[in-house]
Amino acid sequence: MNRILIAEDELRIASFLEKGLRGNGFVTTVVEDGIAAFDYAVSGEYDLLILDIGLPLRDGFTVLRRLREARTTIPVIILTARDSVADTVAGLEGGADDYIAKPFAFEELLARVRLRLRADRVPEVTVLRVGDLSLDLRARRVHVGDRAVDLSTREFALAEVFCRHPDQVLTREQLLSHVWGFDFDPGSNIVDVYVRYLRRKIGNERIQTVRGTGYRLRA
Ligand code: CA
């Protein structure tokens, strides 16, 4: 089981990450400042560090530099504000493996986490199949039976969430946080709109509406 250290002082984001990662089978620890981030990361007990740049006591760049000075090889994914991506890319020379700009969708972060951890893991399933629907995660290709279906990035992400949880009722909130991230207005009807797009492409009857709750992909 993979242990992930989350260094993030914004509690809303920390708990969003923690909930999502735990839901995907990871063990997580949250620290809220740069000194704790360093101490925990250097312990060798974690497989990956998600590191916010704007941390109290010591910023993410400093934490990262000190970790590399201490010859700690833990993979690091940096969280940065969208308007400071340029600075962050410059900061990657300090030895980080990747970065992701806030706000981000959970699926995007999860994909990066899996990628960083893949080196020492058994190969993962890359094609998801539910009935005659198949999603090739690596090639980003979708088929219904023999017919190739063209999905947009969001539609694909939505289809992936459904295929990972066949026959389960997924609430609008779950779909929203997995596909669109935490910065989306929970009152938005974007989930319904995209479910409609997806039904048009993969077949109406495949995704059931569960009244008052959400949606379910029929297995
Ligand atoms: Ca912060």
* Poorly predicted ranges: none
CATH class of the largest domain: Alpha Beta
- Approximately what portion of the residues adopt beta-strand conformation? 15-25%
The biggest beta sheet, please? Answer: 5 strands, parallel
Ligand species:
calcium ion
User: What is the second-level CATH architecture of the largest domain?
Assistant: 3-Layer(aba) Sandwich
In short:
With 219 residues, the protein is of the alpha/beta class.
Task: Please outline the helices and strands.
Blueprint: E1 3-7, H1 11-23, E2 27-31, H2 34-42, E3 48-52, H3 60-69, E4 76-81, H4 85-91, E5 98-102, H5 106-118, E6 127-130, E7 133-136, E8 141-144, E9 147-149, H6 153-164, E10 169-171, H7 172-179, H8 190-202, E11 207-210, E12 214-217
Parallel strand pairs: 1-2, 1-3, 3-4, 4-5
Antiparallel strand pairs: 6-7, 7-8, 8-9, 10-12, 11-12
Calcium ion (CA) binds next to loops.
Throw out a few tags for this protein.
single chain; 219 residues; alpha/beta; Rossmann fold; Arc Repressor Mutant, subunit A; 2 domains; 39% helix; 24% strand; elongated; binds calcium ion
